[in-house]
Amino acid sequence: MDAREQLLEAALKVFAEHGTRGATTRRIAQAAGVNEVTLFRHFGSKEGLLRAALSTGPRAVSFVDTHLPEKPVDPEAELTEFCRHHHQALFESRSIIRKCMGEFEEHPETTRTACQLPVMISDALRGYLERLRGAGQARGDWNPQAAAAMLMGVLFNDAMGRDCMPERFPYSERDGIKHYVALFLQAIGAGKPARRATAPASPARRPARPARAKTTASRR
Amino acid sequence: MDAREQLLEAALKVFAEHGTRGATTRRIAQAAGVNEVTLFRHFGSKEGLLRAALSTGPRAVSFVDTHLPEKPVDPEAELTEFCRHHHQALFESRSIIRKCMGEFEEHPETTRTACQLPVMISDALRGYLERLRGAGQARGDWNPQAAAAMLMGVLFNDAMGRDCMPERFPYSERDGIKHYVALFLQAIGAGKPARRATAPASPARRPARPARAKTTASRR
DNA sequence: GATGCATGTAAGTAAGTGCTTGCATCTACG
DNA sequence: CGTAGATGCAAGCACTTACTTACATGCATC
């Protein structure tokens, strides 16, 4: 309603499509349905508007809540939940993320602020993985930071590549996450124990794993 | 030497720094040490120059050789080799890759051609993983496409994020790859079997694994 | 020495860009 | 009613950008 809000919203949208250089004041004003002069009256300059839009927008779009519990109970369910939310957030903001990445060389400071969020999420995931292993729900001497990078890496890769190279992601978003989580659980030694797949041998018992609070739904 | 070559080289460099819109003909000509008019005489238009530069440049920079053998022998060594090369290629071209990604919405066709390479590499990796499992060197019912996405995802994530969010990658490039490969081997059921994590005991012999053609260097 | 070819130089054009100015209009509120 | 503040509108300004034109220069080859 308010011209100011409309401008912020339009700025974000035009920026996502055309980047800083392509987001001309004329284009933004038109997208906002507002006179170009009003833009300068409110924000002083194009740079001011973009800064305002980028500092408020993505903060609202994304979220600090990682959906990872303090005390791990059901790693598969919890990681799936995390992946779904994180992937969705990435996919929704993919245009803006790509633009920010592309402008890293020219506007490092803008990109830096945009990077704070993934850094925080990565930290949260790393902490969760450490707790998981501490509680004996995962085994191995893997590096938690690298493991976090691995999971967030696939999600990022999927969210960024799904639209521009669909051949690489023939499965649905939902199935993809299932596959990623299953692989990841194996990687951190928290996967399903007995697995006869191709070469069955002895389904050796796996060490203590606390009883599930709530079971996960899917299991193929 | 040749003005044409200098222009192509300069175009690629300026594009990597400023993107399509920021790569002005003046800037490119100056970077090439050539008169601006010469640019138009050779390539007709800025678009023509950029197209020529982008179609020759990255093809030379990257490589189709994935370093993955037809017959898997030593998965750890082979995947490490693959990761090193792929990561290095990604990291070296990170500026151009970021720019292309950022311009996907505006120039989908350009981005599409840039995407052909990762698609091919992904296919090669998927094939390798299938062969690996077929030969009994990996176990589990994981999805090969998703597994390929997982490994390429971390590499991509690392190569793109290492400079703009170093907090997320506190380890060296080399160590990172070691961690990723170790995690990945576990994920696809090709990791080291016995693993007492924090408390090492007997360096128990590992079960049948075909004799190494060439041994890998490091082993932590 | 003459011809042709690649390049440099100078100038200019039309369009777009960020931003400003001056003035008219509308609306809310005393 | 009157006034103040927010907005629209038209025009313009200084600058950049892609691209063109016209002409001069160097260099190799016949």
How large is the count of helical segments of chain A? 9
Can you summarize the main beta sheet of chain A?
Answer: none
* Overall geometric form of chain A: elongated
Query: Structural class of chain A, please?
Result: mainly alpha
List the chains of the largest interface with their residue counts.
A-B, 66 and 65 residues
User: Assembly type of the shown chains?
Assistant: homodimer
Average of the residue pLDDT scores of chain A? 87
Q: Order of SSEs of chain A, N→C?
A: HHHHHHHHH
Helix content of chain A: 55-70%
Number of strands of chain A: 0
Radius of gyration of chain A, in angstroms, nearest whole number:
22 Å
Low-confidence segments of chain A, given as residue ranges, are 194-220
Residues in β-strands, percent of chain A: under 5%
Distance between the termini of chain A: 49 Å
What does this protein look like?
Two copies of one chain form a homodimer. Chain A has 220 residues and is mainly alpha-helical. Helices cover 63% and strands 0% of the residues of chain A. The first copy, chain A, contains nine helices and no strands. In chain A, helix 1 (3-22) packs across helix 4 (46-61), helix 3 packs across helix 4 (46-61) and helix 5 (75-92) crosses helix 8 (144-161). The longest helix of chain A is centred in the middle third of the chain and has 27 residues, at 108-134. Chain A is elongated and about 65 Å long. Chains A and B meet through helix 1, helix 6, helix 7, helix 8 and helix 9 of A and helix 1, helix 6, helix 7, helix 8 and helix 9 of B. The structure holds a DNA duplex (30 and 30 nucleotides).
